[in-house]
Amino acid sequence: MEYTQQLEFHFDRIDKEAIPYLSVDCIIFGFHENQLKVLLVRWKNTEEWSLPGGFIHKTESVDDSAQRVLEERTGLRNIFLRQFQTFGASVRYDTADTWKRLNLPIDHFRWTNRTISIGYYALVDFSRVNPTPDFMTEACQWWDVDMVPPLLFDHNDIIDSALKTLRIQLNWQPIGYNLLPEKFTMPELQKLYETILGRTLDPRNFQKKILGLEILDRLKERRRGGAHRSPYLYSFNKEQYEAALQEGSLMFL
Amino acid sequence: MEYTQQLEFHFDRIDKEAIPYLSVDCIIFGFHENQLKVLLVRWKNTEEWSLPGGFIHKTESVDDSAQRVLEERTGLRNIFLRQFQTFGASVRYDTADTWKRLNLPIDHFRWTNRTISIGYYALVDFSRVNPTPDFMTEACQWWDVDMVPPLLFDHNDIIDSALKTLRIQLNWQPIGYNLLPEKFTMPELQKLYETILGRTLDPRNFQKKILGLEILDRLKERRRGGAHRSPYLYSFNKEQYEAALQEGSLMFL
After folding, report:
1. Do A165 and A189 fall into the same domain?
2. pLDDT tens for residues A226-247?
3. Residues of chain A with pLDDT > 70: what percent?
4. Long-range contacts for B237-244 (Cβ within 8 Å, ≥24 apart)?
């Protein structure tokens, strides 16, 4: 089917099946090579990027629609996903300019005169994700959070809000657990905290504090092949981590 | 105008002016006589209570619609108001049973087959509120949060979520500042923290900790007319309180 036809078919289905005025947007965070990353899509026939998002079916819960978008983009199910904010300004962005940038071959205006977006952030294990564009996009790619280009819609602001949420929730959501691979070194864990908090931490202090929380197991195995020393590997002790989160005793700020 | 006519007029306007499938619900908290309280409305011709809520006009921001509901119910403007969660389950409550309990003289069903509700909590100075029912309700009243009756819709769950949010946000939102009158005693402040956290705190420890934060001014004035001693009065030092919130240094948990 030709792209224009596909789009018409798609928007006809949205008209029938989706809740008008509403959308979900997903901020999918990953952590790789000491960088916090976010998954973005590039729209077909453009150089314009945005967050992955979608509409909510009339019979579908809002949480399920976010899960569906995530699964379509990453191939993963049962991801750590949290609703964090609904973006409801009466004018969120310059609609005319946005449709020009989107360069769509059909008029999508009736659908997007105003959209209220429910924002979800997801924390995924970078190595398990298979970024997948959909039929309206031609690339799906990780970006360093501090290198994100000017996005479509108000998506730069939405990423800023999600980062602010991560910073606040670092103490009572299992953020480290979901972003790191099963085994990691102390510098990797510290770098994750530093990236989210947006400031450097003293290594000795960090190690003392985090070990004091008794949520890590030090493994017998060490990281091999490093240029210098072979650092110890750690993994989260899931039970103790969950207990600490429940108690709210992971205060680090 | 007769009630049935009023309702028809009202729902006709909603059909034209409001965003379908969406609503806002407001959890308005106050603190009085050492009790955390929540403002509820009783629906006309029933003994059924719910949170105050409303619809979102097509040209209105979601925040503004919550402010509007608050102002209509309390007479107050510029209230401390925070969006905290969007309730988007595909089936939030038993619709048929709910409409039976609501006992409305016209069929409101087309509007409420499914509603996604954006929840806001508000913190108000109890003494300044003038609870005001609207034309669909005949009472607007404060309830102790631990005495709330079985509410319409899923509003008991929404209150629980709001309380959980307060508990978490006690450390980085000006919750005490907004719930207490300008001058208060140390036991009153402690009681507020205890009520929100849902557990008792040691008075000596509490006083030491909270004074250590340097966010309170002790006034020369004392509370007069008490049965026993005349306790000191305190007020928040707004500047230092804001600075502490920014730093995230109000950790109490």
Report:
1. no
2. 666 788 999 999 898 888 777 6
3. 92
4. B238/B177, B240/B214, B240/B215, B241/B174, B241/B177, B241/B215, B242/B174, B244/B213, B244/B214, B244/B215
* Beta-sheet pairing, B232-236 with B216-222: antiparallel
Q: What is the pLDDT of residues A160-215, one digit of tens each?
A: 999 999 988 877 677 888 999 999 999 999 999 888 888 899 999 999 888 888 88
Q: Is B119 in the same domain as B201? A: no
Residues B163 and B193 in one domain: no
Considering only CA atoms, which of B160, B135, B133 is closest in space to residue B148?
Answer: B160
**Is A176 within a domain?**
no
- In this structure, the answer to whether residues A143 and A52 fall within a common structural domain is yes
pLDDT tens for B93-152 read 998 889 889 988 877 666 667 999 999 999 998 999 999 999 899 999 999 999 999 999
Nearest to B164 by CA among B30, B62, B45, B27: B27
Chain B residues near residue A249 by CB distance under 8 angstroms:
253
Q: Do B74 and B13 sit in the same domain of this protein?
A: yes
Which residue is associated with the tokens 């925070």? Answer: B82
Query: What ipTM score was computed for the predicted complex, to two decimals?
Result: 0.89
Q: What pTM was estimated for this model as a whole?
A: 0.91
With beta carbons under 8 A apart, name residues in chain A contacting B64. 90
Residues of A in contact with B253 (CB under 8 A): 247-249, 251
Task: Calculate how close chain B gets to A138, using CA atoms only, in Å.
Answer: 30
* Rounded alpha-carbon distances, angstroms, from residue A179 to A125, A242, A247, B147: 5, 15, 21, 41
Question: Do the chains contact at B85 and A83, CB–CB below 8 Å?
Answer: yes
Q: Answer whether B130 touches A (CB < 8 Å).
A: no
Domain range for A229 is: 182-246
Residue A39 and residue A128 in one domain:
yes
Q: Do B90 and A64 touch (CB under 8 A)?
A: yes
Give B7-57 pLDDT, tens digit per residue. Answer: 888 888 988 999 999 999 999 999 999 899 999 999 999 999 999 999 999
Contact B56 A168 (CB under 8 A): no
Using alpha carbons, select from A146, A176, A150, A178 the residue that is nearest to residue A163. Answer: A146
CATH of the domain at A196: 1.10.10.10
CA-nearest residue of chain A to B87? A62
In the listed set B108, B143, B169, which residue is the last one of a domain according to the structure?
Answer: B169
- Average per-residue pLDDT in chain A? 89
> Is A22 an 8 Å CB contact of chain B?
yes
